[in-house]
Amino acid sequence: MEIVLDIARASGTVGLRPQTTQIVTRGAARLLIGLGYAPVAEVSLPNGRRADLMGLGRRGEIVIVEVKSSQEDFRTDQKWGDYLPFCDHFYFAVAPEFPQHILPEGPGLIVADGFDGAVLTPATPAPLAAARRKALTLAFARLAALRRLDV
Question: Which of 92, 90, 87 is nearest to 73 (CA)?
Answer without folding.
Answer: 92
